[in-house]
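thought: user wants a sequence for this fold. calling inverse folding tool.
action: design(structure=
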């Protein structure tokens, strides 16, 4: 497998990383699918570490990556740039990117800036998170 990262093993138990005012929980219930649960504030302070976490998951080239926003309490403009970057990386490697449990504030901001149509909502059966 030249040029491709080895796929990580499934993780039945979510792995949580605290990034100050944001926590990121990665769950890989079945390879090659990955869910990232976000809780807290997504802003210019937390985005660099969040970006690193999500890009590390994308290096494994999952077929699907779900970003779960159910517990996001703040979403600033740095979050918009993060989403566009992650979307571009996912598209380049044919990873399907889904946003799920998008909070009202995040959805409103995506709509206001005209980005809502760039992202898929995860409504697939079995797309449950821990």
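)
observation: tool returned 130 residues.
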């Amino acid at each position: 497998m030249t040029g491709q990262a080895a796929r990580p093993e499934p993780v039945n138990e979510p792995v949580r990383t605290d990034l100050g005012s944001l926590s990121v929980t990665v769950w890989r219930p079945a390879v090659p699918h990955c869910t990232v649960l976000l809780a807290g504030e997504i802003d210019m302070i937390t985005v660099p570490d969040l970006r690193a976490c999500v890009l590390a998951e994308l290096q494994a080239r999952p077929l699907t990556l779900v970003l779960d926003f159910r517990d996001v309490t703040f979403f600033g403009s740095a979050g918009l740039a993060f989403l566009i970057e992650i979307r571009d990386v996912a598209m380049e490697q044919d990873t399907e990117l889904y946003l799920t449990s998008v909070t009202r504030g995040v959805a409103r901001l995506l709509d206001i800036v005209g980005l809502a149509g760039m992202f898929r909502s995860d409504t697939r059966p079995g797309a449950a998170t821990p």
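thought: summarizing for user.
answer: Here is the designed sequence. The chain has three helices and six strands.
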